[in-house]
């Protein structure tokens, strides 16, 4: 029953485990739990485990398996094992700031599908537009090209070069001042994942990881190859997955189908890993306001698109934004992602019927409203595309020279710092201000002139 200890950024990550299967329950108790039974060991495949993050210090612990005291090998004092974690205690900072300035989102299988250079070769290009972060869709071994049906969470798909190539990418990105966000599909696994196969075969441990009953099972969107995980029983194993990539150097995680995962588990995961989590939430993000650092703000994306297409009024759009300002924690809203499109929506230029001015107005919003801009690869060359999978076309690298002006426009947007505290509607205009800047968006052509940036449907100017 050995413990495993990892260290990263002044914290220790300790894996407590027992090999004996409990009939009722197994706990690890000690000085870090106030000697209470708050941490239950869960089935982790080969054993029962719990992950705990701890600062440097001297700790006492032991296991209770079905009420029986069990000790590890090693030093013992007063009936408890002794765990000494050396080092200087450092301040652990909570999120009270913007985590990322601007994010470049990459659908990994389509970014270089004509083998026109690797992602590592394109980091300088991404940085030149002002992005300080890249977000990668899943990179794991999986059942399909999008890799949201994972069969191995601990290894990069061989088609992407494996773990060695990913480690080199992390180093190169960090050398350029670029953070890396990894997409984690932990709401479900692939149906070919060994754990799910064992669950279908009746393994009592793995069966609890899933919701299997009456010859059927819970799934994502009724997709049979995506069986839903039960966080109450698979949670400790998931912590091990996240810790693996965190120790490799990943800076933050996007949680796929975050709205399908209990907020309590995401809060626990974030507290353990001490790195940012951004949840995918289509709809009202209120329940996740204290569980994660931010969400993909689809609640703002839909009215943005409808407003600029003339389908809703400025007042209707303003009501959505005002509600978020009133209900959501400010830091949460600042770190939630604003976008004009994603790999799950039609491309913005297609939704705007090729209207480049409306497209640019949408960009102005995601860079100047309260939030963090997430830019989907290919938008800088106005890559077109309808619903999935048409929105996942190969990046057109030949067009990058043709759209230099748009790339410069994006870079200028990155330089703006606007933190509005209220929004108003005036006829067809949406208006919001900071102490020194004002932004106006319209869904009718106004041909704004002057200011810092301006176009037919937008203007950013000094107050």
TrEMBL record:
Residues 105-417 form the Glycosyl hydrolase family 13 catalytic domain. GO terms for biological process: carbohydrate metabolic process. Keywords: Glycosidase, Hydrolase. Pfam families: Alpha-amylase, AMPK1_CBM. SUPFAM superfamilies: (Trans)glycosidases (SSF51445), E set domains (SSF81296). GO terms for molecular function: hydrolase activity, acting on glycosyl bonds. It comes from the Archaea. The keyword Iron does not apply. This is Glycosyl hydrolase family 13 catalytic domain-containing protein. It comes from Vulcanisaeta souniana JCM 11219.
